[in-house]
């Protein structure tokens, strides 16, 4: 029904953004809301989920993200929230490589994905990703797929820094606390990084 929306980002929350279009604010759930910038005019590729109790819009910055989301929600045991979590912490190309290479160890690193669900993803989607695979070169079987880089929670760290920047903290301030945040191996969520960063920022004043 809907393919994309073009409008102005008026609100950013940890779960969704609001895009205003023709005096209507669209609540759009997205893998990484902090990848958007408030007051920017954006194009968001959307997927409408219709249930008896809710009509929910999910939005994506690229068509590949949306197409992979649509594939993932067809897998038994994965709903929209689970698919968003996978897209929030992994590059679509890496996820698709893992599926084609049957790399269960890679897939179970995602939130809410256990061995049973990882196996189901592979059974349901291997060889069925179609045009999504056209521009992807599969590595050899002994090549390790990168997921998060050196820090397994690097995505959460970057989200926290974007959130703090949206709150008005300068790049200089954030650059001072980032190394200390990277050293904290007990931080695993965006909220935890934000709380620790605020403590560090207070010490700078």
TrEMBL record:
**Region (Domain III): which ranges?**
152-205
Q: Name one Pfam family in it.
A: HHH_5
**Compartments where located:** Cytoplasm
One GO BP on record is: DNA repair
Q: What is its main location?
A: cytoplasm
Keyword DNA-binding: yes or no? Answer: yes
Write down any Gene Ontology CC term.
Holliday junction helicase complex
Q: Where would I find the Helix-hairpin-helix DNA-binding motif class domain in this sequence?
A: 70-89, 105-124
Q: One GO molecular function term?
A: four-way junction helicase activity
- Give the matching SMART domains: HhH1 (SM00278)
> Which stretches does the entry tag as region Domain II?
62-139
Q: Which family does it belong to?
A: Belongs to the RuvA family.
Complex formation: Homotetramer. Forms an RuvA(8)-RuvB(12)-Holliday junction (HJ) complex. HJ DNA is sandwiched between 2 RuvA tetramers; dsDNA enters through RuvA and exits via RuvB. An RuvB hexamer assembles on each DNA strand where it exits the tetramer. Each RuvB hexamer is contacted by two RuvA subunits (via domain III) on 2 adjacent RuvB subunits; this complex drives branch migration. In the full resolvosome a probable DNA-RuvA(4)-RuvB(12)-RuvC(2) complex forms which resolves the HJ.
Q: What does this protein do?
A: The RuvA-RuvB-RuvC complex processes Holliday junction (HJ) DNA during genetic recombination and DNA repair, while the RuvA-RuvB complex plays an important role in the rescue of blocked DNA replication forks via replication fork reversal (RFR). RuvA specifically binds to HJ cruciform DNA, conferring on it an open structure. The RuvB hexamer acts as an ATP-dependent pump, pulling dsDNA into and through the RuvAB complex. HJ branch migration allows RuvC to scan DNA until it finds its consensus sequence, where it cleaves and resolves the cruciform DNA.
Q: What is known of its domains?
A: Has three domains with a flexible linker between the domains II and III and assumes an 'L' shape. Domain III is highly mobile and contacts RuvB.
Know the name of this protein?
A: Holliday junction branch migration complex subunit RuvA
Source organism per UniProt: Caryophanon tenue
